[in-house]
Amino acid sequence: MRDMVADHLSDTTFSVGDYVVEPSRNIIRHRTADLSGEISPQEIHLEPKIMDVLCALAERRGDVVPRTELIDRVWGVRYGGDESLTRAISILRKKFSDCTKDAYIETVPKRGYRLIAPVHPVSIDSYPLTALQAPPGPPHLTDAAPPIA
């Protein structure tokens, strides 16, 4: 159930590293360059539960979030959620092109997961779809917005 994840980030557009996350649309966006150096937008769709995991990690960015807490928040079950969470983390790493495995999401053995990429609020009005064609760089962050802790 979507309401199991706190609404803090579930309805807020934010950035995670070089990606812009739109939970209300279940997408993450990224700018990619082809071999000629031309920048093009990439819109990546996520399953709702995968987005819920990402939002839960982003809300506690930098903190280890225990596996049991993620399973309780996203799936609301006591048993059988381990495989679903492992799959969700794997999918997020692939979507974030996390070739170093821990560049965005760190596995803390016997404890849980930690989102280690920077998280910032983003004003979607200053980052419209057409802005994805702008030169590479960080997304337009809201003025004086502190990182989300």
Measured distance between first and last alpha carbons: 24 Å
| Mean pLDDT rating | 78
Query: Tell me, what's the shape?
Result: globular
The H/E string reads HEEEEHEHHEEE
Structural class of the secondary elements? alpha+beta
Low-confidence stretches: 1-7, 129-147
User: How many helices?
Assistant: 4
Count all strands and give the number. Answer: 8
Strand content: 15-25%
**Which range best describes the helical content: under 10%, 10-25%, 25-40%, 40-55%, 55-70% or over 70%?**
25-40%
Cα-atom Rg, whole angstroms? Answer: 15 Å
Strands of the largest sheet, in order across it? 4-3-2-1-8
The main β sheet shows up as: 5 strands, antiparallel
What does this structure look like?
- The protein has 149 residues and is of the alpha+beta class.
- The protein is built from four helices and eight strands; from the N terminus they run H-E-E-E-E-H-E-H-H-E-E-E.
- It has helices at 7-10, 48-59, 67-74, 81-95, and strands at 14-16, 19-22, 27-33, 39-45, 65-66, 105-108, 112-115, 119-121.
- The protein has a five-stranded antiparallel β-sheet with strand order 4-3-2-1-8, with no helix packed on it. A three-stranded antiparallel β-sheet has the order 5-7-6.
Keywords:
alpha+beta, 4 helices, 26% helix, 8 strands, disordered N terminus, disordered C terminus, three-stranded antiparallel beta sheet, 149 residues
Describe what is shown at a glance:
This protein is of the alpha+beta class. The protein has helices at 7-10, 48-59, 67-74, 81-95, and strands spanning 14-16, 19-22, 27-33, 39-45, 65-66, 105-108, 112-115, 119-121.
